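User: Run a structure prediction on this.
Assistant: Running it now.
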Amino acid sequence: MIELLVVISIIGLLASVIFAVVVNAKAKANDAVIQQELTQMRNLYESVYSTTNGYAALQPKPPYINNNWQKCIQYQTSSSGYVCQMSTAQQCSLVFTQDTPNNIDALNLCNQIIKNSGFFEIAVLSDTNLIQHYSMIAKLASTNKYICMGDSKNTSTFISATNPSNDSINVEMGAGCPGNP
C-alpha cells in the first residue's frame, strides 16, 4: 500500500511539472504568433512605403487624430507624427478606415494582434529631415512584456508594469520603439 502511495505521489509531481512546462510553452508559442503578426504588419508598411513613398495610405483619417479620439494623439517629438493605441477590434476599425486592400489587410492584422495580445500601438512620425518612420508595440503573452518593431528592422522587448506610453523611458530607448524606430 505504501508503494502505491509513493507511485501516486510521484505521478502527481511529474504531472505538475509537465503542466508548468506546457503552460510556459503555450505562452512562448503565443509570443511567437504575436511577433509574426507584427512582422506581417511591418512588411505591409514597407510594401506601402515602397509603392507610395510614404505611409499616408495607412494613416487614420480625421477626426481620429489631434486629440479628438484619445487613442490617437500627435506624437510629442514630431510635428507631423501620431501614435494610436488600440485594445479592441472597434478601435482597429477606427484607425484603419479606408476601404483599400492595404487597409483591409492592416485591419485584419490589427484585429489578430488585439485578439492575441490585447494591446497594439502604431506610431508614424517624421524626423528632422521630414523622413517618415514607423514603430509598433504589442503586449506579449509573457507577463508585463512588450515588443517593439520599427522601420529600421530593429526589434526589442521590454518589461513594463503599466501601459507602454506611461513608461516613456523604456518605450523611447528600445530599438524599434517610437523614440528609436
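The chain has one domain: 2-173.
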